[in-house]
Design a protein that fits this description.
Elements (H helix, E strand, L loop, with lengths): L1 H5 L16 H12 L7 H35 L8 H9 L1 H33 L5 H15 L4 H29 L24 H7 L8 H6 L7 H27 L7 H5 L7 H13 L1 H21 L4 H9 L1 H22 L3 H28 L6 H27 L3
Helix pairs in contact: 2-7, 2-10, 3-8, 3-10, 3-16, 4-5, 5-6, 5-12, 5-13, 5-15, 5-16, 6-13, 6-15, 7-10, 7-12, 7-13, 8-16, 8-17, 13-15, 16-17
């Protein structure tokens, strides 16, 4: 056990799938997962929390989720044969826990994928108002099917587009701020912002909005297992978190400075109301926001697909074994097509599903990304931990449980 504890980032040679992605490609994928749809709502989080609590909560979520991202991979390498988030749950707490964790992490990933499909449809309808929302989502479904079959290594090139779109969004926000300002020589009007929440009842809404930017832990094992050099995982995580946090701060600070109490749920809703001479630039941003979620959806659903495939690959049925070996690619295609179809169908059937996600956001994101990794770590490595490690992990569990409960309860109480 002590050897495993001291060498937590050694990947086992027989872990499927075979490592493929370079360090740079892995960083692109990590950044793409981290900079999700929640990025657009960070200015709104600062509106609810104010400067002091908003910035403090952002750095708290960054530090805690960076720490739990390390713990998660330590647990993944606890012993051979652990490939997924539910696998860790089985080793730590038994088969019943595996079912519970699979439901939770699948619910989180599928919910995020559905919200991204909704975002694609809403963005494309801004560009093509004459085409129905259902038709646009069906077009998105047709594009997602072949993308779902692409290896993570090649998705990294598309992930670069997501990183570039976030950088361009920051640039557009700054340009917009300069254009809107009525006082020459000044970028923004700080009188529109507050150091503390103006309405303390709205503060808990910021809890789920800020943690959403760092809720990628369900996908991290898939990206890790695909790395050519898994011993560089810590380096990839640190670079990805550092870059993402800089982008988050720029979007949150610039967006809140620009719009203050007029900040809308998504910063792009504010940007699209700019003057006519920025119309072309704003349309370019909408195109990026519409295209970027395609690879995010595939990355978010990869752990679900991978878990399903592991289950039917490990089947002991002789008849199924022969079918599996002869028709694996066909089965893989049908399985991933079914998952994508279910996601798009729900996005079409319930176009306001994103509101339901807001209700579950705090609970799911804090549970999957902070609370459960600490519980796994305490359970698996309990005999090797010092007293201060127990204290740190227990404090994280208590604080994040409080934030999750407050954020979820407030969302239900004030849901409209």
């Amino acid at each position: 056990m002590s050897d495993q504890h001291n060498n937590n980032f050694e990947i086992h040679e027989d872990k499927p799938p075979k490592s493929k992605s370079t360090l740079g490609q892995s960083i692109f994928n990590f950044c793409n997962v981290l900079m999700g749809v929640g990025t657009l709502s960070l200015p709104l989080a600062f509106k609810h929390a104010g400067w002091i609590i908003g910035i403090s909560l952002l750095f708290f979520c960054m530090g805690v989720t960076n720490y739990t991202a390390r713990l998660l991979i330590k647990c993944l390498n606890y012993k051979e044969g652990i490939y997924t988030y539910p696998d860790i749950a089985t080793i730590a707490f038994g088969k019943f826990a595996k079912i519970i964790i699979f439901i939770l992490f699948s619910l989180e990933l599928i919910a995020i994928a559905i919200s991204l499909v909704i975002l694609i449809g809403d963005s494309l309808q801004i560009l093509f108002p004459d085409i129905s929302l259902i038709s646009l989502k069906i077009i998105a479904w047709m594009i997602l099917i072949p993308l779902a079959l692409i290896d993570i290594k090649y998705l990294s090139y598309f992930s670069l587009l997501g990183i570039l779109s976030a950088i361009i969004l920051v640039i557009v926000v700054i340009i917009d701020g300069i254009t809107r300002n009525e006082q020459p020589g000044s970028l923004f009007n700080p009188m529109k912002t507050e150091l503390w929440p103006t309405d303390w009842n709205s503060l808990p809404f910021s809890f789920g909005l800020i943690i959403a930017g760092y809720a990628g832990h369900s996908v991290f094992p898939s990206i890790y297992l695909d790395m050519q050099t898994p011993n560089t995982y810590l380096k990839a995580i640190n670079i990805s978190y550092s870059f993402s946090t800089v982008v988050y701060l720029l979007i949150a600070v610039c967006g809140y400075l620009m719009f203050g109490n007029m900040t809308k749920p998504e910063i792009t809703q504010n940007i699209m109301s700019t003057t006519d001479h920025l119309k072309l630039l704003n349309q370019f941003i909408v195109w990026l926001i519409a295209i970027n979620p395609f690879t995010k959806i595939v990355l978010e659903l990869h752990p679900v697909n991978f878990f399903i495939e592991i289950q039917y690959l490990s089947s002991s049925c002789n008849l199924w074994t022969r079918i599996r070996n002869d028709c694996f690619l066909l089965i893989r295609f049908l399985s991933r097509t079914l998952v994508i179809t279910m996601v798009v169908f729900i996005a079409i059937k319930y176009p306001q599903f994103d509101r339901a996600i807001e209700l579950l956001g705090s609970f799911l994101f804090y549970t999957i990304s902070t609370i459960i990794p600490c519980m796994f770590y305490l359970k698996l490595y309990s005999n090797n931990l010092r007293w201060w490690e127990w204290l740190v992990n227990l404090l994280i569990i208590l604080v994040c449980t409080a934030l999750a409960m407050l954020g979820t309860i407030w969302a239900f109480l004030f849901y409209h």
